[in-house]
Amino acid sequence: MPKAATKPTLTQIGTVEIRRLRVYPLPGGELSDKDTAQVEPGHYPLMRQDDGSVFWVMTARKNNHVVETQNLAHISPGMFSLGQQDRAVGKPFQLCSKVFDAEEFAEYAVECAMDEDGPLRFTLTA
For 97-116, how does the pLDDT look when each residue is reduced to its tens digit (9 = 90+)? Predict the structure, then answer.
């Protein structure tokens, strides 16, 4: 009899402080006005999976981008600029960040720590 698949174990290893309003793509979406979400500044849980990969879980709201999508400016992997016509709509929902492998996350966390005015600040507790 085949063994049942086990769910990966998630461990909270700290928090990420999002220091200003950010726009993230929705999972599986294409870059369009229907495929982004706004995340408010705040502290969000930083999670590690069994394989060492790391991501954070945010509370987001759908981004109602009423201008054509060519006005979305790409800032960094998985993040876009916010224009004057953008506004959060609908009920809040949970949104996961990009999943980083352990080495990639370590490099990204150092990069963020070096930017005193940067949009993200990580605090590790485990």
Answer: 999 999 999 999 999 999 98
